[in-house]
Amino acid sequence: MGVLEDRVAIVTGAGSGLGRASAIAFADAGARVVLLGRRVDKLEETASLLMARTGRAALVLGADVTDEQQVEDAVGAVLKNWERIDVLLNNAAVLEQGSVLELTSEEWQNQIATNLTGPFLLTKSVLPAMRRQKYGRIINITSSLSRNGAGGFAAYSAAKAGLESLTRTVADEEHEHGILVNLYNPGTLRTGMHATGKDPATVTPDIVRLASLSFGGPTGTIHSYG
């Protein structure tokens, strides 16, 4: 029996990088995995890898996390298929360079929408089911830029700072309902965002641990690799 046996876990941005690695790790731990993202072809690749490795079929849902109706439809499909949602990993993100002076309002809004509004919409949508179950684990992927900032990454840094505040707020609101909400900073990973860094699979044991926290575990806290 895995530590996530028969738990239902939604992974956003599951078509590549940390999302793909986490989805496979969740399945290895026994979870029924929902792969959510905009590129269905990449999600199907992840589903094939997951099936080959674990023999478990994933639920593939094409959705834009910035679109409230698409998010609600996706969560509805999960509940129709598996009747519960135990884990949400808010991993989907975009990283585009641009100083405050250089960024257009459209570029700013695009990063805020994916990196902050998306996690808000997913969290809001899964909370009713988690409250009914009196159980839920939400993990939001953050970055050191949330606290330190960096020239040329104005929108990304601001969005991640907002995500950290949102995480602490939801943790405070939902603790009495058995829902734990935490942040995870994986450091630099070798993904589509970065040409160098750790293999995303290196950090997935930490993410599985946060997804399987027992009642009374930490909430509203930041966890980091290493």
Automatic annotation (TrEMBL):
Pfam families: adh_short. GO terms for biological process: bile acid metabolic process; fatty acid elongation. CDD domains: SDR_c. Keywords: Oxidoreductase. SMART domains: PKS_KR (SM00822). InterPro entries: KR_dom, NAD(P)-bd_dom_sf, Sc_DH/Rdtase_CS, SDR_fam. Residues 7-187 form the Ketoreductase domain. The keyword Electron transport does not apply. GO terms for molecular function: oxidoreductase activity, acting on the CH-OH group of donors, NAD or NADP as acceptor. Belongs to the short-chain dehydrogenases/reductases (SDR) family. This is SDR family oxidoreductase. It comes from Paenibacillus pinisoli.
